[in-house]
Amino acid sequence: MAALAVAVRNLEKRYHGADRNAVDGVDIETTEGEYLVLLGPSGCGKTTLLRTIAGLEQATAGEVLIGGNVVNGLPPRARQVAMVFQSYALYPHKSVLQNIAFPLKAEKIHKAEREKKARWAAGLLGIEPLLDRKPRQLSGGERQRVALARALVREPSVFLLDEPLSNLDAKLRASARDELKQFQDNVGTTTIYVTHDQAEAMGLGDRIAVMYEGRIRQIGPPREVYEDPADTFVATFLGSPPMNLVKRDGHLVGFRPENLLPADVVEGNGSSLTARLDIARIEYLSGDRHVYGTLRGIGEETRVIARLPATVTVPLEDGDERQFAIHERDLRFFDAESGEQTAPQPVRA
């Protein structure tokens, strides 16, 4: 059984004067070497949770454990964690080598030893040729790697990363995401990563914890959370386009846009539902077609989106009325009031 790395138990954090908790009764356990992603919209409490684990914020209630030990009373430096911020927080007047070695200087480690460790960390991240440069001479991706090297040099038990890619452009973010995953695979250090970007979450996490209003709404492997959302918030937050929801007989029927297809290309009609889609408009995006329209025949008339891959070549035009189908296995059912997923409901007339 894998060793426990980080755990929070019934953790709460409320700021003075606030009318609700920023972190509200959160329970999480990570295992050694795991890559856990905290995913949610701005203001959901994910950064506050990360900072509370790091010791930069003090918990109002509950416990933070690292390596099985309660660390609530310990300062950040004593928690054996290293945090990389969105801004990277590099010292502009120091060289890359000096930036990487700085945490070791604060710990009174001899200059020769700290430079040796700094060069080792730089080598792991492929930035040895940059050691004499200043931060202003670096690209965004290079600054990110310097910040990671500075965190790595302390050989922490846990990495805490707070949206480290958010300042990069889209192309660089994709390559930096791949570098981050390879880096974590190589060093094997437990990592908790905060983001509002679902592509980062799906691509990086061994597990995803989806947060909203200070609480964990669902935690699990990316595919499980995507395909089997615990409630309508997770269903509509994760996915681009999000899950379609149709009201029917006091509950909601949910299905992903990629599961709504022209009826003549859906195999096994006996295990699928058909309904009429009145097509309003079609968008062409990265080889896919996003088909917007009104669905009639499953429940209440509802505006939905179908995502058709390039392999589906059925001709469609704005204004068409076409039969679309969904496999019953791809339907999810939610309580209309609570939003929580329920057992499957009858959908056939």
Show the helix and strand layout.
Layout: E1 4-13, E2 23-31, E3 35-39, H1 46-54, E4 61-66, E5 69-70, E6 81-84, H2 96-106, H3 111-124, H4 140-152, E7 158-162, H5 170-187, E8 190-195, H6 198-204, E9 207-212, E10 215-220, H7 222-227, H8 232-237, E11 244-248, E12 251-255, E13 261-262, E14 272-285, E15 288-296, E16 302-308, E17 321-327, E18 332-335
Helix pairs in contact: 2-3, 2-4, 3-4
CATH architecture of the largest domain: 3-Layer(aba) Sandwich
Rg, nearest Å: 24 Å
* Helix-strand sequence: EEEHEEEHHHEHEHEEHHEEEEEEEE
- First and last CA, distance: 49 Å
- Our estimate of the beta-strand percent is 25-35%
Strand order of the largest sheet: 6-7-8-3-9-10
Helix content: 10-25%
Count of alpha and pi helical runs: 8
Structure explained in plain terms:
With 349 residues, the protein is an alpha+beta fold. The protein folds into two domains: 4-227, P-loop containing nucleotide triphosphate hydrolases (Rossmann fold, 3-Layer(aba) Sandwich); 243-335, OB fold (Dihydrolipoamide Acetyltransferase, E2P), CATH 2.40.50.140. The protein is built from eight helices and 18 strands. The strands form four sheets. A six-stranded mixed sheet has the order 6-7-8-3-9-10, with helices on both faces. Strands 13-17-14-15-16 form a five-stranded antiparallel sheet, with no helix packed on it. Strands 2-1-4-5 form a four-stranded antiparallel sheet, with helices on one face. The longest helix has 18 residues, at 170-187. The protein is elongated, with a radius of gyration of 24 Å.
